[in-house]
Amino acid sequence: MKVKVKAKHKLKSYLRWDMLYILDKIDQGGEYSNVVLDRYIQNSKRDQRDIDLLVRVVYGSVQRRKTLDFLIEPYIQGKKVDSWVRSLLRMSVFQMVYLDRIPNYAIVDDAVTIAKTNGHQGLGKFVNGVLRQFMRHPLRSIELIKDPIKRLAITYSIDDWLVEYFSKHLSEESLELFLASLNEEPLISVRINPLKITQKQAIDWFNLRGTPVEGSPISSFGLRFEKKTPIHSDLFKEGALTIQDESSMLVAPLGQLKGHEKVLDACAAPGGKATHIASLLDNGHLWALDISKRKLKILSDHLDRMNLSDRVTLHATDALKYSPDFQDLFDVIYLDAPCSGTGLMRRKPEIKYRKDQTSIDSLCQIQDQLLEKAASLLKPGGRLIYSTCSLVYEENEYQVQSFLKKHSNFKIDPVKEEEGVPKKLLTEEGYIRVWPQVYHTDGFFISRFIKSKD
């Protein structure tokens, strides 16, 4: 979005101008909503009430983008509309349809002022006309769409191809529950550092201070917060807690670490799993790799905060090019592979519109190469834990099957309910597949291989 000088000065006090600016960063700048919002919140001087509204509108406008376009379209009538103006219309209509405490006149007044100031007088009239027409007419009926795939895609605001894809793997009822879950507000998930505190001690600590919290239903390391993030708490500052989604908390314990092992985390950043692995070691050691120096710096800071730095060696390198500076192979390797991120569509709703089959095919090739590399670095009898935050079968089950066909010296080491994993998350093959609608977490996939000793 090209920002006019007068807009920068005149609109700086407008909360809805901030909303639009952030939406443009997401839609046109290609950034992730959670990252842009975190950055805004850290630097904002606005009060908490304004920040809460901004987060709700930004997330909602991205989550419901396809639905909003469907509702707005009759009033645009095929006119060419700049991307920032379309974002302005989306966020205005989102507030009218999905929020009930804001008067429509306030929404329209701000939208018209923003359009005139960053555009021109005619643009202000156009925005005013579209929004006032929208207010005068009943909502366009989605139920009249005959094609069931298109109807679901617009109802739940997701690309058609993803609806069609998941309809092949889920029942009609499960598909709707899954799609609906993608528009839920994500919970704030936190993992304890078991070297400093237990789950019960952490829950008691927050309850004593009047902060609502509950234990994770899928991980004994996890805590759930509905609203207030605990990152400003003393427990977080002291390294007793770290931010991590509950699904990914399932990964580290699957290595069945005794504490003395040589462990590799092949794709370590941003570090939730790496710090978890490190906390389960004693006189063992973790080698953590990532291609991004910036992300490794964040991981390094978390390790320092949690007093785990002496257990971990960081390497800024591509795992495919990594060669250990010692002769022994690794006892356990964790490969949390680059993926489509389709399990994160609640937390990063823009993923619903950015992915296609071609991009997934490219990722599958990278995953295949990383599995080959990991296999070569694992000692006989060792465990390889492969995980993704994807729900696409080509990146998960099919990838595992392909790997096993090429490696007769590897077999699946089935994950069992006795390991503390809820039965609902276990597949017949012994994989973990987490659908977001089941426990209101991120979607996730985990499989565990064991390398034969022969």
Automatic annotation (TrEMBL):
<dbReference type="InterPro" id="IPR049560">
    <property type="entry name" value="MeTrfase_RsmB-F_NOP2_cat"/>
</dbReference>
<feature type="binding site">
    <location>
        <position position="336"/>
    </location>
    <ligand>
        <name>S-adenosyl-L-methionine</name>
    </ligand>
</feature>
<dbReference type="GO" id="GO:0005737">
    <property type="term" value="C:cytoplasm"/>
</dbReference>
<dbReference type="InterPro" id="IPR035926">
    <property type="entry name" value="NusB-like_sf"/>
</dbReference>
<dbReference type="InterPro" id="IPR029063">
    <property type="entry name" value="SAM-dependent_MTases_sf"/>
</dbReference>
<feature type="binding site">
    <location>
        <begin position="267"/>
        <end position="273"/>
    </location>
    <ligand>
        <name>S-adenosyl-L-methionine</name>
    </ligand>
</feature>
<dbReference type="GO" id="GO:0008649">
    <property type="term" value="F:rRNA methyltransferase activity"/>
</dbReference>
<feature type="active site" description="Nucleophile">
    <location>
        <position position="389"/>
    </location>
</feature>
<dbReference type="GO" id="GO:0003723">
    <property type="term" value="F:RNA binding"/>
</dbReference>
<feature type="domain" description="SAM-dependent MTase RsmB/NOP-type">
    <location>
        <begin position="178"/>
        <end position="452"/>
    </location>
</feature>
<dbReference type="Pfam" id="PF01029">
    <property type="entry name" value="NusB"/>
</dbReference>
<dbReference type="Pfam" id="PF01189">
    <property type="entry name" value="Methyltr_RsmB-F"/>
</dbReference>
<dbReference type="InterPro" id="IPR004573">
    <property type="entry name" value="rRNA_ssu_MeTfrase_B"/>
</dbReference>
<dbReference type="InterPro" id="IPR006027">
    <property type="entry name" value="NusB_RsmB_TIM44"/>
</dbReference>
<dbReference type="InterPro" id="IPR054728">
    <property type="entry name" value="RsmB-like_ferredoxin"/>
</dbReference>
<dbReference type="InterPro" id="IPR001678">
    <property type="entry name" value="MeTrfase_RsmB-F_NOP2_dom"/>
</dbReference>
<dbReference type="GO" id="GO:0006355">
    <property type="term" value="P:regulation of DNA-templated transcription"/>
</dbReference>
<feature type="binding site">
    <location>
        <position position="318"/>
    </location>
    <ligand>
        <name>S-adenosyl-L-methionine</name>
    </ligand>
</feature>
<dbReference type="Pfam" id="PF22458">
    <property type="entry name" value="RsmF-B_ferredox"/>
</dbReference>
<keyword id="KW-0808">Transferase</keyword>
<keyword id="KW-0489">Methyltransferase</keyword>
<protein>
    <recommendedName>
        <fullName>16S rRNA (cytosine(967)-C(5))-methyltransferase</fullName>
        <ecNumber>2.1.1.176</ecNumber>
    </recommendedName>
</protein>
<keyword id="KW-0698">rRNA processing</keyword>
<comment type="similarity">
    <text>Belongs to the class I-like SAM-binding methyltransferase superfamily. RsmB/NOP family.</text>
</comment>
<feature type="binding site">
    <location>
        <position position="290"/>
    </location>
    <ligand>
        <name>S-adenosyl-L-methionine</name>
    </ligand>
</feature>
<keyword id="KW-0949">S-adenosyl-L-methionine</keyword>
<keyword id="KW-0963">Cytoplasm</keyword>
<comment type="function">
    <text>Specifically methylates the cytosine at position 967 (m5C967) of 16S rRNA.</text>
</comment>
<keyword id="KW-0694">RNA-binding</keyword>
<dbReference type="InterPro" id="IPR023267">
    <property type="entry name" value="RCMT"/>
</dbReference>
